[in-house]
Amino acid sequence: YAKSLGKRNYQFYAPHMTHEAVRRASIERQMRIALEEGGFAVEYQPKVSVSNGRLIGVEALVRFKPTDGRPPISPVEFIPIAEESGLIVPLGRWVLEEACRQNKAWQDAGYLPLQVSVNVSAAQFRSGNFADLVHNALKSTGLSPAYLDLEITETTVMQNFEYAIKLMRQLQGLGVSVSIDDFGTGSSSLSKLKLFSADTLKIDRSFIRDLPDDRDDAAITCAIIDLARNLNQRVIAEGVETKEQFAFLQEHGCDEVQGFYFSAPLPAEKFESMYARQW
Ligand code: C2E
Ligand code: MG
Ligand code: MG
Ligand code: MG
Q1: DSSP single-letter state for residue 266
Q2: Atom in ligand 1 nearest the alpha carbon of residue 204
């Protein structure tokens, strides 16, 4: 039966819908409202240089807090719903613009320039005019392209390879850099990896978690670091949580690190106050 609670709350709960389907429909509805009413936020997680310990960039991570007082919903849950419903297109555009705007505001305030990395989902990537969107975000915010990095997962790149190459050329033509996110989980062919020529490989957290004790993960991590080095690409490890993981990565020549050991993702104001001194 259909239940109408005014225009914006209109919802259709068919009796056969599973609990899971009802939850997804509810999240989708809440996201539509949040998009209109500013219910999304961006947090920033530091990326740190291994050689000198300095802050060199941030990853922008979207946050969604339901207005009904229920606990926050993880992007792991709402990003796939946004992808399937098409909401990822306006949401992704908002995150991109917000991250560029914030980064430019930090530069205008006199902080040392940082590169901001924005995650790009498969649906956004395939949306046809993605390079125009990036160009417009840079133009409207005034951020220089050198300070924008786009994180695209290995799976997205490899599943849309011809298109990925074309888009990569357009993005690099704009002057932004590109990282391959969750690297090691997406069955790259090495020849494709070479053709795609990303700026950075980002080692997936699953390989970092059991370092340094797990010999397989240690071997894979070292192989990715060597691969990046030989392809003349930078390499960053995500999900670094312990001193021992960091020591391993440092010893084996990883360029950059990111993870709870350094900092969780932080709201913009908190990020500023924590890093103002180092900046
Ligand atoms: P990702 O791009 O691989 O982002 C890294 C995730 O790992 C983030 O989770 C981050 O909070 C978490 N993380 C960082 N350091 C650590 C650590 O030391 N330990 C552990 N256990 N986790 C750590 P988050 O923010 O929940 O995001 C999850 C995924 O959702 C992201 O994975 C990305 O795929 C997607 N996502 C987040 N924001 C956006 C966005 O703005 N656009 C798109 N398209 N996807 C996004
Ligand atoms: Mg990422
Ligand atoms: Mg990642
Ligand atoms: Mg990951």
Answers
A1: E
A2: 3
